[in-house]
Design brief:
The complex is a heterodimer. Chain A is built from six helices and three strands, in the order H-E-H-H-E-E-H-H-H. Chain A is an alpha+beta fold. In chain A, strands 1-3-2 form a three-stranded antiparallel sheet. Chain A is elongated and about 50 Å long. By secondary structure, chain B is mostly helical. Chain B is built from five helices and one strand. The chains are: A alpha+beta, B mainly alpha. Strand 1 (33-35) of chain A pairs antiparallel with strand 1 of chain B.
Chain lengths: 125, 155
């Protein structure tokens, strides 16, 4: 965290893949809990991709999962944990900062990830 | 070299996805009807309690139950649970204050009119306040949707 209480702009390798960034971004929009189908449709990913990626986020302590049922239908709800929210804000700050950097300046930036790690085909779901 | 256009694209994608998530919270007709009913019951309390014993607490409880059930049903249908802290959404806060003003003002005016024996006028005030309250609630929900799109409701 910075002195002003805002999270420092840092690249978070857990959140960085586009699918996980989408999941965190949707959960950080302000809703308390978001249901599996709503999250899947908004992120435009498949059930299996959401299951896999949400488990990774849960293991990292960024997402909380609540399972229930409506009648016979199982329902899964997701929520961002305070840790996850902080990490997401720091990552978005990093993205915004990186977007402001001109490409010729970025060439000297050794902390920048290679382009291949930003978006990969299978991480898009 | 870092490709900054990809970072911009990711942020734009995030916004588009949030717009899609917020659109799920568009209020269905039954939700508006339920909210209007809850408002009508709440605003009928001053009139009912004048003529019926226990109408005050009964009406208040009924309005709360209808409100909670409508919220629960909307969360199930939309897949987005707003929780109980809807005041955290800045765009919806103004509408929430407006709702409190409508509720308190209507309650006061209805009581005043009933004290003067003007039952019909009190009912008219109740109906108008129900319409105003339901409109404010719709505005509150619109504000929440806007905050979800921009992420202002977070924190």
């Amino acid at each position: 965290m910075t002195a002003k209480g805002k999270p420092a702009a840092t690249l978070d390798p857990v959140i960085h893949p586009i699918t996980r960034l989408s999941i965190c971004g949707l959960l950080a929009s302000g809703a308390d809990w978001v249901e599996f189908a709503a999250l899947r449709d908004a992120a435009a990913i498949s059930d299996s991709v959401l299951s896999k990626q949400s488990r990774l986020l849960e293991d990292a302590g960024y997402v909380e999962v609540r399972k229930g049922a409506v009648g016979r239908r199982p329902r899964t709800w997701f929520r961002l944990t305070p840790n996850g929210r902080e990490a997401f804000q720091a990552h978005v700050a990093w993205l915004q900062q990186a977007a402001r950097v001109r490409p010729e300046d970025a060439a000297d930036d050794t902390t920048a990830p290679p382009p291949s790690t930003i978006l990969t085909a299978n991480e898009r779901g | 070299m870092r490709d900054d256009t990809e970072n911009v694209a990711e942020l734009e994608l995030l916004h588009t996805q949030r717009v899609q998530l917020a659109s799920r919270l568009k209020t269905p007709w039954w939700y508006v009807v339920a909210m209007a009913f809850a408002w009508a019951v709440a605003l009928a309390v001053p009139i009912g309690s004048r003529y019926l014993t226990g109408a005050g607490i009964g009406g208040t409880l009924l309005a709360i139950v209808v409100f909670c059930l409508a919220q629960l049903a909307l969360a199930r249908v939309s897949g987005v649970n707003l929780g109980t802290r809807t005041l955290q959404y800045p765009s919806g806060r103004v509408w929430f204050i407006a709702m409190l003003v409508v509720l308190l003002a209507a309650d006061g005016v209805e009581t005043l009119l009933l004290d003067h024996g003007l039952l019909a006028a009190a009912i008219v005030v109740g109906v108008l306040a129900t319409l105003a309250g339901t409109g404010c609630w719709q505005g509150h929900m619109r504000g929440i949707r806007r905050d979800l799109e921009t992420g202002r409701g977070a924190m």
